[in-house]
Amino acid sequence: MNPFWSRIARELSPYVPGEQLRIANLVKLNTNESPFGPSPLALEAMRNAATDTLRLYPDPEATELREVLAAYYGVKPEQVFVGNGSDEVLAHAFVALLKQPKPLLFPDVTYSFYPVWAQLFGLACETVPLDGAMRIRVEDYRREVGSIVIANPNAPTGIALPRADIARLLEDHPEIPVVIDEAYVDFGGESAAPLIADHPNLLVVQTMSKSRALAGLRVGYALGNVRLIEALRRVKDSFNSYPLGRLAQAGATASVRNEAYFRESCARVVAGRQAMTRELIRLGFIVLPSSANFVFARHPAQGGSEFAAALREHGVLVRHFNKPRTAPYLRITVGTEHDTQRLIAATALILGHE
Ligand SMILES: Cc1ncc(COP(=O)(O)O)c(C=O)c1O
């Protein structure tokens, strides 16, 4: 604390990101990054963009990127908003759409940034408990609220809702903004993007950090009705007109154009998730059904916190969320085959298996 801090700075409880350690030989399965690199075409586009033109500001509208995304999703470029990671896009959505006179509703177990933005921007919020199987039940959201945000697949459970459930949620709430955060949708979820045409209150948010292996570039985007996108642009242009630099725009555009690489790396992650799940179950873990690039698993013999600490001793980093419902679990990112072998070997040692 310092006398120069504003009241806002004093009262914040900031989000705590996963550790980014600079220790060699560590198996890093704690921040849901891709174990495979970005598209080689994206890397080449960024190298080509690293020229003298960097002295010039980038296109504030990211026109080309928005055009390729619009073509990809079958919408108009005016229905696409891009930002510095989906965290920034979501933060703008909190201000532009979700802040309403009535409270914002989200699950009790979900992306832990939602309550942080709610606090920063002064939104009242209410939470809906996941059911006993850690699932979201859309019928539990039938109440009078100002707005809704749902991560689908949810984080950190990895469990996905079918598109039909999102459609039911939207039918129950035609009068309020609904944001669906699809950070992990490319690993087996069903995107709500096709529902945009019939639902002017739906904003779908996605990221290039996970399935496109560009977490280091910071590119996220939103798709929705032109009027919703306009609200996001109003907030963005009141905050930072140039959220995406020239390199980010070039790399992200090339990534969207390289569909074959994208499909292949998603398929590899899904195969890796299936292999990791099988091995964890063999070691006695209870693994929630994941449609993401991570699994959420608990072991009846050991608590999550001790397990995460023990894995760390073996050079394997996983994420643990020390809240009542999530405390027994570990969130483990799908890595390479070699990463999974190290995780499983360390786990077997910790559990005393031969
Ligand atoms: C559910 C969810 N939404 C959004 C994000 C933000 O991703 P980024 O800002 O890298 O696009 C994350 C990151 O972990 C996430 O788990």
Order of helices and strands: HEHHEHEHEEHEEEHHHEEHEEH
Class from helix and strand fractions: alpha/beta
> What is the C-alpha radius of gyration, as a whole number of Å?
20 Å
Low-confidence stretches: none
**Percent of residues in beta strands:** 5-15%
Provide mean pLDDT, rounded: 96
The count of strands amounts to: 12
The outline comes out as globular
Total helical elements: 11
Which assembly state applies to the chains in this document? single chain
Helix content: 25-40%
Strand order of the largest sheet: 2-8-7-6-5-3-4
How far apart are the termini? 50 Å
Identify every distinct bound molecule in the structure, by name, code or SMILES.
pyridoxal-5'-phosphate
Task: Give the biggest beta sheet.
Answer: 7 strands, mixed
What's this entry about, in short?
37% of the residues lie in helices and 14% in strands. With 354 residues, it is α/β, with parallel strands linked by helices.
Protein architecture, described:
The protein has 354 residues and is α/β, with parallel strands linked by helices. The protein is 37% helix and 14% strand. It is built from eleven helices and twelve strands. It has helices at residues 7-11, 40-49, 63-73, 85-98, 113-121, 163-172, 226-236, 246-257, 259-282, 304-313, 337-351; strands at residues 27-29, 80-83, 104-107, 125-128, 147-151, 178-181, 202-207, 220-224, 286-287, 294-298, 316-318, 329-333. The strands form three sheets. The protein has a seven-stranded mixed beta sheet, with helices on both faces. A three-stranded antiparallel beta sheet has the order 9-10-12. It has a two-stranded parallel sheet with strand order 1-11. Helix 2 (40-49) runs antiparallel to helix 8, helix 3 packs parallel to helix 8 (246-257) and helix 4 packs across helix 7. The radius of gyration is 20 Å and the shape is globular. The termini are far apart. Bound molecules: pyridoxal-5'-phosphate (PLP). Residues 32, 85-87, 111, 151, 155, 181, 183, 207, 209, 215, 220 line the site of pyridoxal-5'-phosphate. Pyridoxal-5'-phosphate is lined by residues 32, 85-87, 111, 151, 155, 181, 183, 207, 209, 215, 220.
